[in-house]
Description:
Helix content is 61%, strand content 0%. The chain contains three helices and no strands. It has helices spanning 7-15, 27-36, 44-69. Keywords: Membrane, Transmembrane, Transmembrane helix.
Amino acid sequence: MEFINNWKLVILLCLTLGLAPFFPEPHIWGKIRWITGGANGMAFMDWFDVLLHGFPFILLIRLIILKVIGLLKN
């Protein structure tokens, strides 16, 4: 379980899996725009894609919250 508390690994995941493919725009950004636009036409695979590309950011937000409230020592 130590790997989900590793800042370097989580940031690396955010910059690679979270943003890939990078061009013409980060994939997660396109999916978020699609969802905020009403998510018309999104299939199960699109929602799974949001989860897959968003998970590193969820881990990063979790680490930030734990660090702020003082539960994480490193």
